[in-house]
Give the backbone structure.
Amino acid sequence: MSAKRYSFVVFSDDWGRHPSSCQHLFRRIARNHRVLWVNTIGMRAPRADRFTICRGLEKLCEWTKPPRQVGENMWVLAPVLLPATHEGHLRRLSIKMGVAAIRRTMRKLKVKDPILWTSVPTANDYVGRLSESAVVYYVTDDYELWPGGNVAAIRKADQELTGRSDLILACSESLAASHRSAKAKTALLPHAVDFEHLATMGSEPEELSGIPRPRACFFGLMYEKIDLSFLCDLARQMPQLQLVMIGPVRTSVSQLAAMPNVHFLGAKPYAELPRYLHAMDVMLMPYVLDGESSSKGPLKIRECLAVGKPTVARAIPDLEAFADVVHLYRDRDGFVQTVRRALMAADAGLSKRMQDRVRGETWEARASSVMDQLSGLVNCRYSCNDKTCFVTTSRTQPDWRDYLSRHPKSTLFHDARWGNVMEKAYGNSPFYLTAWRGDKPVGVLQLVAKESILFRSHLCSLPYFDAAGILSDDEQATAALIRHARRLMDRLNVGWVELRHTAPICRAPTCRTDKVALRLPVPGCPDALWEALKPKVRNQVRKAERAGLTVCTGGVELLAQFHNVYTQNMRDLGSPPHSRHFFHLLIETFQAVARLFVVRSGRRAVAGALTLKDRCYVHVPWAASDWRAKALCPNMFLYWSLLCDACESGAEYFDFGRSTRGSGTYRFKTQWNAQEVPLYWEYLTASEDHTAGLRPDSTKYRAAAACWRRLPVSFAREVGPYAIAKLS
């Protein structure tokens, strides 16, 4: 098994309710890896019957209990999940409550970057919401054929989950064929068996002493997929044969239970099960023949083989391979005849052949195979010019400092700390993609997830800034990062990935070029800069000086004054403002390069800006002025102060930030002799272009901006951060 330690969040049946294949696997996997098992609700629509009421009461009791530890590395959580099978407010509420409970437990258990593993398609609702590093879909049934389920909803979830998974493990060839995906590896993972446990013969239970031989046994869940009519015929035609039924009952069995040679013993503890099975003469697998049974690879066949008792089973595709050690039947008449033959054919040689067929097919071997598959999954590899280039995705902040320091095109906005700032400020999840050759990084990409109902969820590199995007050593590393970003987009089921650059690199069909960055080469001294300015600009700066405006520089101590001016200005422009908390985090995180400038008229702040400096640039991502003081030219005085500071700091370029060509801010910046630098915002989309609504000329955007301008400033200050958390 892989030496690397992983964390798992597993969506499956209720832990301990019955020994499913998923439970067998994770009993073994949890010996070396941390596992949070999430009990889910079934896919059946709620019904007014005794079973549904009893299960509902059980779930209500589970929901009141905290997570329970069931092993050294394993915990079981039963979150509140409402039985909502259709789209609507109830389902969205259920998902939100489930995500909150799971995330809360993950934090408590220190589960980070888990592999999301699911054996139920309904877990599709949670993909992309748990900061998972990969998604594994373990397919054990044709789920849409489950009785009582919402077929359309299950089919949709199954198809979406297939497309969003990184690895699909199917228990049968037919299920593997129906779940092929161009975006994920699909592999066969047949069921296994707890061989030593089931092959060990114990003393016959006293409960069976009153049941004469021969005995035919069915063990497992009795539900609609078990052909009870065949069992009735068998009991009627072979009255000397005793039918022993072991397991929970979820369907009507009144006709079968009324027969004198049929005995319902109920469910038995898994530890006691071999004692019952070894006391039987023949095992029965009477499945109803339909689409589900034809595609499934029954777990039960290997358990019967491990017991070594003659087994009679419906001839379905996945059991044909066992025809030499199992008695297969095809119709009603053949069932009774096959049982007769099986009773007569029992011998020690057959028992040994049966057990030999599955002796090596243990759950330990399957768990080891799973971990080998996962070791190649988390690091997705690509072939690049005969050199192996692979991409890792992390939700925790990587150390890119050495790579950024040596790359000639890196800027402050490639710094991995931005993701942490945005997550703490707005709850936006960062994803850090690193391209490697061997142990050497050759490319980086930081993506931040934005969840929005109005403008649709998406990934962006980097929100709020002009350009960040992919930084790499060569085209091969770039291609690997783009491909991995697409896979992440599909897995998170978001509308697009937005990559912001100063040159096109993706050849994406959708690319915005309506905005430009405006940058000015900085001369060695302010005098040279002053001489290059037009007379009108110099006059406005002098006017501000004569009005007695002053400028202060500093850090968080100036934040309140800056934020007041900034919030007023953003409201007037029709845009939501960032929170003070965001700026506080930014200044604390980048305190060596972040500075606040505040222009005052007397004691009143009338303009302000935040600057960020890296090795080549002084950037001004946020600046604002109070329109009520326009006659004093505070904006001109602010920018002259910023430019003088850039000269004195030794910066090569002053970055005014982005503007739309021909706009008022564009004309303001170009009057300082700033030069255009094209911006290419490229969009990786799954199919249709969903980005049109984000453009300033779109009806949706203009309507939102018009509404925002009418808000009171105090209200905009409080609500703005909630809105901007959804935008980029």
Remarks:
- The chain has four domains: 7-188, 195-361, 378-512, 516-678+695-724.
